[in-house]
Design a protein that fits this description.
The complex is a heterodimer. Chain A has helices at 29-43, 65-72, 87-100, 120-124, 146-159, 163-177, 191-195, 224-230, 260-271, 289-299, 307-313, 335-339, 345-356; strands at 10-17, 53-56, 79-81, 105-112, 199-202, 204-205, 215-223, 235-243, 281-284, 315-316, 321-324, 328-329, 369-374, 381-388. By secondary structure, chain A is an alpha+beta fold. Classes of the chains: A alpha+beta, B mainly beta.
Chain lengths: 389, 149
């Protein structure tokens, strides 16, 4: 058994979200972050003076922790950091800071703003236009986002996977988002609609890629001992990890059989007392649909190459969604593909809402345990198990 | 042997590249139409993209060494939109971007495009060889299907 002394020691006691849209109507990322943060602190029943840690994912265009401290008038902060996206890096940092005693109560925030290189409307915004990537890269690159299309080609080649396998990820997200007031994309989507969508980086089409949005999520975390005094049954981080292999340059990755997700799964499996059979809801990241298929296979829900068939076998025709073994929904908030590109904070937020019993129309009855596989294959693979005590 | 271009000239010749002290030899090679990848003087392993030490044995003794450019397509995607580049017209045909596993070493790969054939002949598993095209007045390494020259 791996060491996991931090198991259940840190709780998530506050949530706030602005909801997500293709256009926030001229609000800055900082304004969105402030709104979500104030909601989260109030949701926790705390005051500015109670927050002594500030962790904000370093999203492009998003506010730095010191800017947030100034905007929110936090009188004393003892730990602050700006971890690289995606979301579990920041969650792990907040968790460790609390457990180690660096600070007691963390405001954890994630603010997203559409950028000129991923949104035509953002490119029309005179303020946003100034955010650039610097050097305009050559098209012949499989770095960053393009890597997922490149490796999707390999996945299809190795396992002879039809496009419908990817399509089911998109359909599940869209049908789920329809039940989520925070989601950006709710128009119904059929398999015909998916198959007819515009190709972007073939084999991936527009609907295989997360939706750039404006919006923010915020969380308040504190020691579980303190959380118990605030609420009867706190939501805690049972285990959390990130994973990286040595050869993680996108085009040099040894194979689909060994990358960051595999390290995450091994690490999480060793740290967690709870595993697949104990889960009530599953959150595989879906910045690109191929990532979701990877999480299904690498967590061991099915064999390598088998995720498409697995989704088909566990498809609930009535709701147009995946229900694993007829009971475990997958990204019931709509994921990054349809709630919006929250880079994992939406997955964490929905997990907490489900475990609190606050998910309204999406609520999984009696949900106690949630499994999150966040990030992709290369340098942002992460995982977490959250539970209600 | 031409004069070695300065760092400043190198940056100017490749406006689309992020050039630094670790990868400058790669781009200097392109100006001579040579594809040179870092090879460890101690364990003889190639690696790419260029790193300051050999990831296999930590030797800092590395020599940018020419590779044949022969290999097999390992990854293949087709851009229907993307960054602008001379000679790339996304409206006319999707632009192939391939990662080629080079003959020199298992897992040693280089990413570029494929020229000189219809897009539907660009497939994973196809053998390719290196060629050079002009981009912004400087050589740019590309692949073509083996034997298609």
């Amino acid at each position: 058994m791996a060491r996991n002394p931090i198991a259940d020691e840190v709780a998530i006691v506050g949530l706030g979200s602005t909801g997500f849209s293709r256009d926030s109507g001229g609000r800055s990322a900082k304004a969105l972050a402030c709104e979500a943060s104030i909601r989260a602190i109030r949701d926790a029943g705390l005051e500015p003076g109670d927050i002594d840690g500030l962790v904000g994912a370093a999203e492009p265009g998003g506010p730095q922790p010191q800017e947030m401290s100034a905007a929110l008038g936090l009188p004393q902060v003892r730990h602050f950091s700006s971890p690289t996206p995606v979301a579990v890096f920041a969650l792990v940092d907040a968790m460790n800071a609390i457990y180690s005693g660096s600070c007691d109560t963390v405001l954890l925030y994630f603010a997203y703003t559409r950028l000129p290189w991923n949104s035509r409307s953002a490119a029309q915004d005179p303020f946003r236009r100034r955010h650039t990537l610097g050097v305009m890269p050559a098209p012949e690159s499989v770095n960053a986002a393009a890597a997922y299309a490149a490796w999707a080609s390999r996945y299809i080649h190795e396992y002879d996977v039809p496009r419908e396998a990817f399509g089911r990820v998109a359909l599940n997200a869209r049908a789920s988002a329809a039940q989520n007031p925070l989601a950006a994309m709710k128009a119904p989507l059929s398999m015909e609609g998916y198959l007819g969508a515009r190709m972007i980086r073939e084999p991936l089409c527009l609907l295989d890629m997360d939706v750039p949005v404006d919006g923010a999520d915020a969380f308040v975390l504190t020691r579980t001992e303190r959380a118990r005094a605030m609420t009867g049954s706190p939501i805690v981080i049972h285990a959390a990890t990130v994973g990286l292999v040595g050869t993680n340059d996108e085009d040099q990755l040894p194979s689909l059989a060994r990358h960051g997700q595999h390290v995450v799964v091994e690490s999480l499996r060793a740290k967690s007392d709870l595993w697949l059979e104990d889960m009530d809801v599953f959150f595989p990241y879906d910045g690109f649909s191929i990532i979701t298929l990877g999480w299904f296979e690498n967590f061991g829900w099915c064999a390598p190459g088998g995720a498409g068939r697995f989704l088909e076998e566990h498809w609930d025709e009535a709701s147009g969604r995946v229900m694993i073994e007829g009971r475990i929904p997958v990204n019931p908030h709509g994921g990054s593909l349809s709630e919006g590109a929250t880079r994992g904070s939406g997955h964490i937020r929905e997990a907490v809402m489900q475990l609190r019993g606050d998910a309204e129309a999406r609520q999984v009855p009696g949900a106690r345990n949630a499994l999150i596989g966040c990030g992709g294959f290369f340098f942002n693979s992460q995982g977490a198990v959250l539970r209600r005590l | 042997m031409t004069e070695i271009p300065s760092d400043a000239e190198l940056v100017e010749r490749f406006p689309y590249a992020r050039i630094d002290h670790d990868n400058k030899a790669l781009y200097r090679g392109w100006l001579e139409k040579r594809l040179r990848m870092n090879r460890c003087d101690d364990c003889q392993r190639f690696h790419h993209p260029p790193k300051p030490v050999c990831p296999g044995c930590w030797s800092a003794s590395l020599t940018p060494s020419e590779v044949s450019g022969r290999g097999v397509i390992h990854l293949a995607m087709f851009l229907h939109q993307g960054p602008p580049a001379p000679g790339v017209d996304y409206a006319k045909a999707p632009h192939p971007v391939v990662t080629v596993e080079l003959a020199e070493q298992e897992g040693l790969r280089f990413t570029s495009t494929v020229v000189g054939c219809p897009v539907d002949e660009v497939r994973i598993g196809a053998p390719v060889e290196l060629d050079w095209v002009d981009r912004f007045g400087a050589p740019f390494p590309v692949f073509r299907l083996a034997g298609s020259r």
